[in-house]
Amino acid sequence: MLRYVTTNPGKVREAERYLPDGSVERLDFDYTEVQADELGPIAARGAREAYRRADAPVLVDDAGLFVEGLDGFPGPYSSYVEDTLGVERVHEIAADLDDRRAAFRCVLGFCDGEGFAASPDPVDRGERDAAAAAGPEADESDDEGASARDDPLPVKLFEGYVPGRIVAPRGDGGFGYDPIFEHDGETFAEMDTDRKNAVSHRGRALAKFAEWYADR
Hints:
The chain is an alpha+beta fold. It has helices at 9-16, 39-54, 78-84, 87-95, 128-134, 143-150, 193-199, 201-213, and strands at 2-5, 24-27, 58-67, 74-75, 101-111, 123-124, 155-166, 181-183, 186-187.
């Protein structure tokens, strides 16, 4: 059984669209989210921690909104920026840009305690990026950290990407940045659930994962 590590049941329902019936269940586990400038190290660190907790195959995701004209901001800090600045403020900042192109990105991290054969998909084989992101204040004597350094678990990474641009808020659906992100003429908040899932960054990452996982 695959454990999708999330507090959001909607993510599991989306995963069930791509995976065989009864093959995935939700694991409500609040893993440590390290600070990093990329999504991959965050998902990889979370997958390792969740695997050690569950002792079973796990899937962790990290996602964010990347605005081209802001050098990728808010990116991995999207949740924090939403909680502090707010979605409309992000639109106001981007409205003055010449380049309002943006993208939603999602990285899935899979860990089952085993290694991986070579493939075009990236594999994070250590915790150097996550350790660097944790900073010098990280507790070197921590048993969990010591275990990770002595026996790093490889994590398979799958990325989903959907291009768009930042617009004035439109639509009553969705959540987060959905009202200000337009793709193919519609904001995510204007799309119904099936349409959004069909083009979403998480859905595209899940499709890649499901194709690979079928042969795992």
